Amino acid sequence: MFITLDPISMAKDTQRRTEQRAALIAAAEAAIAGGGLGALKARDLAATLGCAVGAIYTLVADLDELVLLVGSRTLARLDAALAAADAGADGAGTDGTEAAVRRLEAVALAYARFAHAETALWRALFEFRMAPEKALPDWSVADQIGLFVHVDAPLAALLPGLDPERRGLLARSLFSAVHGILALGLEGKLVAVPQAHLEAQIALVVRAACRGLVAEQAEGPPS
Amino acid sequence: MFITLDPISMAKDTQRRTEQRAALIAAAEAAIAGGGLGALKARDLAATLGCAVGAIYTLVADLDELVLLVGSRTLARLDAALAAADAGADGAGTDGTEAAVRRLEAVALAYARFAHAETALWRALFEFRMAPEKALPDWSVADQIGLFVHVDAPLAALLPGLDPERRGLLARSLFSAVHGILALGLEGKLVAVPQAHLEAQIALVVRAACRGLVAEQAEGPPS
DNA sequence: CAGGGTTATGAACATCGTTCAAAAAAAGCT
DNA sequence: AGCTTTTTTTGAACGATGTTCATAACCCTG
């Protein structure tokens, strides 16, 4: 999940170079955290690093790559937060279904709190779109697919009979639904849930969806 | 819902000017539809309009205002599509609950189809963020709040006992949830629902949520 | 057609990301 | 140490971009 440097450049990477790269990523992270993706400027980075603009392009191919590197760090923290929430979900004194619901609710709320605490960095994960011709590097795709496991696992506990493929789709749907409530809500869009009610509404929707899904499965999966 | 021109400039607006403005908006719409918000460039607009760059700024204050004007048109079409879907939802031979569920499902699917058919323009509605210091013009906020009525009305039929404030929050939550599934799905993000399954998953989630909500209300609203 | 107000023009400015010839630094070598 | 070769860093320069504004063109009215 952590950033692994490209082996080709790694070979001739001195200690110094690696440190500079880390400093660059840290500066970029601070810039994005402070002012969103739009605040990531080559000249500003050079100023905080105390080097010339051109130096940046010896450490990194693009500013795009830099965004991806920062995104990788953000994803790692998010992954940890979701995993902790799932592990810490308390289902004591409840049947299996209720325990599973609580796990899903805990993961959703952890996602909400992460997004709220690190809004700018979190948003950067989704605002960013690679230029259509350039493909995402492999390490970046690996980062992202790890996320939805934290929804899929509790979902397997909730709906033991569901075949894994359908479950995968459902996990993605639930993840995206919660994401949507947060994305619009934290943006202050007018169609959105006001920030004060975000966590409560997410919990409500997650519980309702779980309940409906269990009921549907109980009477036989139609489609 | 339609664009009303600013009365101040309206006073001295000739026929010709209004036409140019319309042409500008049309060109901007085409540009965004073709290449997203990033493809809206002042010089390109001037080229397609056959005028100088400076002329644009006599018709419109900013490119931001232009984005808002295009957004207003998009919202009008979206509003019409959702209204039609709600009106056309067929609940024949079903009880009231099932009829309401079908209305909500129809609205959600209409949203999905609109987003799919006009992805770039639809995305522009949400990608765009006004500079923090400048406030949204009044006509733009009026456009947006009209949207969620198409969720709120069927929801009132589904849950007659729910008080309007809570219902409003729920309508916003459901809207945002469906939006999230679409937003991630149409972007091809990795945590997202694959495009081929978008409509089916949206229908599934909407139905499950409805079912869960009705069940919860039946046994008494706790919180 | 002369004068005055309105509108269009496009060169100019500031700000981006990115490049690249040249300078500086480091490393190798005798 | 001194010279050569390789590597790294530099920052001016390039091409886009949104926006402005003195100037020119236009249009209407008297």
- Going by helix content, strand content and strand pairing, the class of chain A is mainly alpha
**Helix content percent band of chain A:** over 70%
What's the count of strands of chain A?
A: 0
Name given to the CATH homologous superfamily of chain A: Tetracycline Repressor, domain 2
- Envelope shape of chain A: elongated
- CATH fold-type name of chain A: Tetracycline Repressor, domain 2
Stretches of chain A where pLDDT falls below 50 for ≥5 residues? 1-11
Give the ordered list of helices and strands of chain A.
Answer: HHHHHHHHHHH
Oligomeric state as shown: homodimer
Major sheet size, sense and barrel closure of chain A: none
Count, helices of chain A: 11
Give the total of domains of chain A: 1
Share of β-strand residues of chain A = under 5%
By CATH, the architecture of chain A is named Orthogonal Bundle
CATH class of chain A: Mainly Alpha
Q: How far is the first residue's CA from the last residue's CA of chain A?
A: 37 Å
Radius of gyration of chain A: 20 Å
Structural descriptors:
homodimer, 223 residues, mainly alpha, Tetracycline Repressor, domain 2, 0% strand, elongated, disordered N terminus, DNA-binding
Task: Please outline the helices and strands.
2 copies of one chain form a homodimer.
Chain A lengths: L6 H5 L3 H21 L6 H8 L3 H7 L3 H26 L7 H22 L1 H9 L10 H8 L3 H10 L5 H24 L10 H21 L5
Helix pairs in contact in A: 2-5, 2-7, 3-4, 5-6, 5-7, 6-7, 6-9, 6-10, 6-11, 9-10, 10-11
The structure holds a DNA duplex (30 and 30 nucleotides).
